[in-house]
Design brief:
It contains 1 helix and 5 strands; from the N terminus they run βαββββ. The protein has 73 residues and is mainly beta. A hairpin with a 5-residue loop joins strand 2 and strand 3.
C-alpha cells in the first residue's frame, strides 16, 4: 500500500548538523494531517543549503518503506 505525506520543515544548519553527520539516523516529522512519520535523515542532505533545510515536502512510502522525498516549495 502506497502512502503520500506532506510536511513543512524549517531546520537551521546547526540543528541539522547531527543528522547530516550521521550521528542521528532518522528524523520524525508531523504531517499536515497530524500523523508522525519517521524516515532516514540522509534523504534530506540534497536539500541542505546555507540556511539549513527549509521547505514543504512530499514523502512517498510503499508498504511502510521509503520511496521518495521531494521538496515542493
Amino acid at each position: 500500500m502506497s502512502q503520500t505525506f506532506y510536511f513543512s520543515l524549517n531546520m537551521s544548519t546547526q540543528d541539522f548538523l547531527p543528522y547530516y553527520q550521521g550521528r542521528v539516523q532518522s528524523l520524525v516529522v508531523t504531517t499536515t494531517t497530524g500523523i508522525r512519520v519517521e524516515f532516514p535523515a540522509m534523504r534530506l542532505r540534497k536539500y541542505v543549503d546555507s540556511l539549513g533545510v527549509r521547505g514543504f515536502f512530499c514523502l512517498k512510502t510503499e508498504h511502510g518503506k521509503f520511496v521518495s522525498l521531494t521538496r515542493i516549495k
